[in-house]
Amino acid sequence: MPNTRIIASTPSQSVARLEARISNDLHALLKRAAEIQGRTMTDFVVAAVQDAAIQAIEQSEIIRLNQENQNRFVNALMEPAKPNSALKKAFSRQRKLIKQSAL
Questions:
Q1: Pairing mode, if any, of strands 16-21 and 3-8?
Q2: Contact by Cβ (8 Å): 24, 2
Q3: Residues β-bridged to residue 18
Q4: How far apart, in Å, are the Cα atoms of 15 and each of 8, 10, 18, 49?
């Protein structure tokens, strides 16, 4: 198996090394894709990895709601429910704790 080393750097940043062992078939596939785009294999792989990382992070941070749940969310914001007894009790307790900590 070939040993592919990927180094991504910019002049103002420190350099880190990423090393991966891949199959000959994957190496050939990456090389072909890089050539098609007119990039070096390193540039191609770094860009692809960066895109995948950004997408993974975005997917974990974005909450997606179907139409019904979007409507429920908006309605809850526009017309919040009146405080029930448990919420009133919690606010009362919070006020007492704040007063006590101020003393």
A1: antiparallel
A2: yes
A3: 6
A4: 7, 8, 10, 16
Determine the length of the chain: 103
pLDDT tens for the chain, 103 residues long, are: 455 555 555 556 788 998 999 999 999 999 999 999 999 999 999 999 999 999 999 999 988 899 999 999 999 999 999 999 999 999 999 999 998 888 7
Round to whole Å and give the CA distance between 34 and 29.
9
CA angle (14 as vertex; 1, 26 as ends), nearest 5: 20
| Contact between 66 and 73 (Cβ < 8 Å) | no
Give the span between the Cα atoms of 41 and 20, in whole angstroms. 13
